[in-house]
Amino acid sequence: MSVEPKIIFLGTPDFALPTLRLLIENNLKPEIVITQPDKPAGRGYKMSPPPVKELATEVGIKVIQPNSRQDLTEFFKQNSFDLAVLVAYGMIIPNAVLAASKCGFLNLHPSLLPKYRGSSPIQAAILNGDKVSGVSIIKLTAKMDAGPILAQQEVQILAADTAELLFGKMAKVGAELMVRTVNQCLSGQGLETIQDETQASYTDKINKEAGHVNWTKSASEIYRQFRAFSPWPGLYTFFGGKRLRILNLRVIEDAGDRAPGLTFSVGNGFGVACGHGGVELTKIQPEGKKPMDSHEFILGNREVLGQILK
Question: What is the C-alpha end-to-end distance of the chain, expressed in Å?
Answer without folding.
Answer: 69
